[in-house]
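Typical record was shown:
=====
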Amino acid sequence: MDFGRASLYILFVFPLLILILSIVQISKKKKILLLMFKDEHKIRKYMRIVKKDFFINILFISGVSFLVLSLMLPRWGVESVDRSQNRTNIVFVLDNSYSMLAEDIYPNRLEKAKEIILSIASKFYKKDFLSLFIFAGDSEILVPPTSDFQSFNTYLMDVNPEINSIQGSYLGRALESLSSLACNSLKNSIFIIVSDGESFDDPPREMAQKIIECGNALFFIGIGSTEGAPIPIRNDNFKIIGWKKDSNGQTVITKLNTPLIINMIKRSENYVIINTPQIKDKEVSKKVIKVIKTFKSKKIFVKKADKSLYPLFLAFILLIFYGVFWYGKKK
């Protein structure tokens, strides 16, 4: 069992405080009764009233506790979902780091990635949702799920490394954000990562596996050459005026990281590598489209089911009983 809003556990502080105060209160009343009466029969009689009050408080505490549990969105077991009845989210995860400007793939890695993304997106926007997630040093959803192909196209064409507030290449951080989305707001999605695989952190395979376990598919398009290429620096007229250098003044050579890609994807057929100009866009698109269609054809898949209604129902029943007993006590 896990929780959709695990951070709300802090709310259990309130019923816990009420419980502690109730225990302290019953202890004080017992001491007062022992001081006031010597007759054990009278003490037992009044203690029954005190215990009844404590029982009413326990009903309230239990009701509030189950209400908090419901707010935490507990999930367990499995739930069958008919995928064919829903639109699928096709989420393109685009590497927007400076290494994607390398020109070992014409015209450069980033522009080639855009061409492939558009080729795939144009086949599905009428029946499914398109989304664009970009990452570098930080990550963000640039285009939330939409069927507006024109808008998607406009945002995609404007992507360049300058729009990320933090530069770098942190695929691990991106996967962490994706895994959270994949198990919540972006369930029933196909995540297509387009990257050269260079990363300053070590993307854990468990994150990629978590995305799949939440009922999604994951595909990786690796782009770049294993020999590598420098990263050009251009002026306002797009003329090359130099090459990106490291802290030691050496020209940075960026290479396709194929081992990382293969290690991330559990099923070996769920990736394709573009490492030479001879690999045509149509070949890449065809393989990705096949995976998308296979994913969409699987009518039933399982996921952890939302069980928040069960504790909510119990909370409702307990609070009703509390109200009945409390009203009876006042009368």
About this structure: The chain has two domains: 2-73+308-330, 81-304. The first helix runs from residue 13 to 36.
